[in-house]
Amino acid sequence: MNISDEQRASLSGITVLYVEDDPVALVLARAAIESVVRTLHVAENGRDGLMAFVRFHPDLVLTDIRMPKMDGIAMATAMREMRPDIPIIVITSLDDPDLLRRAIKIGIDSYLAKPFRPDELLGVVARFAAAQRHRLDLEKQKRLNELLLDSLPNPAMLIQRSQGRIQSANGFAVRLGLVPGLGMAETPFAEVFRQAGLDALLDDFHSGTHVDFPGVAAFDRRWDVNIDPVTDSLLLRFSAAKVMAR
């Protein structure tokens, strides 16, 4: 299988753990991915696989189901308890419906039947490597966003324009209940921002309005709400605080 430069870059950044007691499958796996991933660790049973998982912190796990000492389902369940987001791919010739149902129940991410071709395995690993790289890039961008927002003196946040969800918020904004991951409809500013957004469409994406929160110390201010475009998918919305007259 020919892989693109982008796929090769994604693969070169991941560590893979393959848990397998079949020596033929291990040979095929090494031929397929060992030269393109950062590191390939192997274990011959579920118990050793779990130990390797704790020691090496892989980005992706490939595993057979039926193995000695600890089967792949029990091993994968323990891995998921430690790291719920770890991608796990089952590679097996087993056609036992009950075991496959158990694999699905714990959230196996993909399945590859034996005997597999090296290019098939490379394709599956490349797909997950690309997804992993995308996730890490998003996390890196989120950290950068938060550093930039925290440098601002007033409440500020980045909102996903398409979904209307708060992607990042500085510490002052979090005090106002503007928590990353929250939908704008779930915040006390929902109606204000809805109207400000409508106004912004008619005003070159810049608008100001006011909202009061009387009787609540943390909200005992008047806020000027402004909207500025950052990218095609994000809007920076920030509020300049004014202490309310007593």
Short characterization:
The protein is an alpha/beta fold and 246 residues long. It has helices spanning 5-11, 23-34, 46-56, 72-82, 97-105, 118-150, 171-175, 190-202; strands at 15-19, 39-43, 60-63, 88-92, 110-113, 156-160, 165-169, 221-229, 234-243. The chain has 8 helices and 9 strands.
- The number of helices is 8
Globular, elongated, flat, extended or rod-shaped: what is the shape? Answer: elongated
Uncertain spans, ≥5 residues at pLDDT below 50?
212-218
Q: Based on DSSP secondary structure assignment, what is the total number of beta strands?
A: 9
Question: Average pLDDT across residues?
Answer: 79
| Largest beta sheet: strand ordering | 2-1-3-4-5
Radius of gyration computed on alpha carbons:
25 Å
Helix content: 40-55%
Instruction: Output the structural class.
Output: alpha/beta
Order of helices and strands: HEHEHEHEHEHEEHHEE
- Classify the oligomer: single chain
Task: Give a quick account of the main beta sheet: strands, pairing sense, barrel closure.
Answer: 5 strands, parallel
Strand content: 15-25%
User: How far is it from the N-terminal to the C-terminal residue, by CA?
Assistant: 72 Å
Describe this structure in words.
It contains 8 helices and 9 strands. The protein has 246 residues and is an alpha/beta fold. The strands form 2 sheets. Strands 2-1-3-4-5 form a 5-stranded parallel sheet, with helices on both faces. Strands 7-6-9-8 form a 4-stranded antiparallel sheet. The radius of gyration is 25 Å and the shape is elongated. About 3% of the residues have low confidence.
